[in-house]
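User: Show me a protein chain along with its predicted structure.
Assistant: Here is one chain, sequence first, then structure tokens.
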Amino acid sequence: MNEQPNLVAAFSGGADSTAMVLAMADKGESFDCLFTETGNELPGVIEHIESVCEHVGAELIFPQTRNTLHTLIAKFGALPNHRMRWCTRMLKIEPCIVFLKRNPGTTLCVGLRHDEELRQGLYGDYATYRYPLRELGWSRQDVVSYCKHHGFSPPKRTDCALCYDQRLIEWWNLWKDHPNEFQRGIKHENDTIHTFRSPSRDTWPAKLVQLRTRFENGEKPTRSKERDGADSSVCRVCRF
């Protein structure tokens, strides 16, 4: 742990939390970084997090958890969705709360920007909260510029590879760049008789196996606006 009492940065590896960690270090603050794994991170996420922590000299903490996205899907026989976001609660929020309870007096630094809605006490009354990016008055552009200035390019996605909330173009990218992960998603759908995508979303198939067929036939979805942290509907916890 750091020498200053219980100052911890919630670090997802995304642009906002990366900029927050770099800025805190530049101000001379001593802190640890907390990363809650889901067991379904895309390649490069943990490597980026470890690289930033090494750069700023912060200890990286992984809260102990017995669950992964895959073990919970098998346990429940169901996939998470917009109405049942148990993945965020059980893999992100609850492990963080356990850590905070075990470390009373913690000040948790969260990467909410000045141009975002303030969400106070996200993890309950188990910690004091700070929002360093809001303290600096930083917008999305400030965050991007600061990461670039320090030579870091955060991963485009820090949520699960098999996130129900990802866009169609992101499913296409997953099929193209990580076919084994896409196939794992197909298996989860077959095992649970559910789908990650909603049938009402658009004219494309909801089932991943049918999406794969369309993709293999050379069809590519039109690129929609990528999530940028300001207008995405994905649960914000996955990108802290």
